[in-house]
Amino acid sequence: MKKRNANYQPWERAFERISTPFEEFIHEETASGIVLMVSTVAALLLANSFLHGHYEHLLHTELSIGIAGWELRHTLHHWINDGLMALFFMVVGLEIKREVIVGELSDPRAALMPIVAAIGGMVVPAFTFYVFNAGGAGAGGWGVPMATDIAFAVGVLVLLGSRVPKTVLTFLVGLAIVDDLGAVVVIALFYTEQIHANWLLLAVATLVLLIALNRFGFRRPMPYFIVGGVMWFAMLQSGVHATLAGVLTALTIPVKPRFDPRLFIDHMDELMQGLRSEQQRYDHSPLGRDYCIIHDDRSRALLQTLENGVHSVESPLQRLEHAMHMPVAFLVIPLFALANAGIPVELSILGETLTHPVALGVMAGLVVGKLLGIAGVTWLAVKLGIGTLPEGMTLRHLIGVGLIGGIGFTMSIFIAELGFAGQPEMLLMAKTGVLFASLIAGLGGYLWLRLTG
After folding, report:
1. Would you say 203 and 232 are in contact if contact means Cβ atoms under 8 Å apart?
2. pTM > 0.85: yes or no
3. Which uninterrupted H or E stretch holds 71?
4. Which of 227, 250, 295, 428 has the largest count of CB atoms under 10 Å?
């Protein structure tokens, strides 16, 4: 394409690229997986170096916010896990709602097999873990191997490029979204402390208010963030895990935009014609080819009106997910990894650690349980005629997805923090199991699909 603007720069070619929301989602998940890996390695180095004491001291440093004598005080570790992670769960909620409305889960027939795979990939790993820990002190951690880390899992598939059909990637994303929903339900039902009814009623009242905001046509995100913040605090005080406020807030974000798309297109044509007229006027002025928008008040006004219209014609749900995905993926999740993946590794007792029932149960659940749950249950459903695999996807792809689904990491460590609160030894065993299992599952899935592809 011939470029008329003498100020055109090579990096402006990005304006010519058109990416679907799904392509942007995959690109960001892949990049965030790399950042997450770097953060994990950094946490492990900190926990196993001379900086270990400073690392632990920093995580247990208390931070507080307060107004007029009222104070909320927690450690940095607690603020990350209960505060910042609420934003992560909000993005999870937005992804779930989008997938159900317009994504892989919107068509019941297409959604059936990812849902079956996700259910199998949650139930079988939980049962596998329980087999190793039935009646023991670590039995309460059965939820740890249920989760799949979508960032790492998508990153592994993207590395394989054309060796796997795109339908395999969409199948994995649908599976992981349902998996996230299952993890949210498990946290809400089984990893909740003592309930304080008054605070829980306040949380319910804020949820009702959020629904009312949606029904009365509020499209800007700020009211939802304010009311959602009150819900977060109420849940924090109620005993229900506060991060669930992020999911519930996300589910109330409106889908329908403020402007009708057809009227917007007509109005956009008028605005673009106005911009062309201003450009032509300046082409014959002394500024000539040095024309810049900043020289013309009317052009700036037209552009601002155009920007306002673009924001109003976008779905608030999609716009908010797009705005939040980057900071959550590149700030919140890496901070979570830095705060939670710092596991002291003592080589002299590593064998003893990995054979501990909790670590063994987590590894068996994520590596073997996920494979049998995802690939085995899905293939059984196909043979029974319950559904069919996506076009181009075969049993070997399904086995690869089953292996990659064993990358638990973020959500698995999060559930471990809840399931083994106050049990540091058990928590260490669970985290160690998650790290080793995720490494085995990721490498195993990658090599399987690369060699069989």
Report:
1. no
2. no
3. strand 70-75
4. 250
Is the distance from CB of 86 to CB of 229 less than 8 angstroms? no
Task: Walk me through the domains of the chain, giving residue ranges and CATH numbers.
Answer: 19-60+70-96+104-188+331-452 (1.20.1530.10), 272-312 (no CATH)
Question: Residue 143: is its pLDDT beyond 80?
Answer: yes
Tokens read off for 417: 């923090």
pLDDT at 67: 80
Q: How confident is the model at residue 119, as a pLDDT?
A: 96
- Assigned token pair, 301: 């006004």
CB 160 within 8 A of CB 401: no
- Phi then psi for 344, rounded to 5 degrees? -65, 125
φ, ψ of residue 419 to 5 degrees: the values are -70, -30
Radius of gyration of the chain (CA): 25
The rounded mean pLDDT for the chain is 86
Q: Which residue has the tokens 């990812």?
A: 114
Token readout for 398 is: 């399904």
The pLDDT of residue 3: 45
The residues, any chain, with a CB within 8 Å of residue 36's CB and separated by 6 or more, are: 151, 152, 333, 334, 337, 409, 410
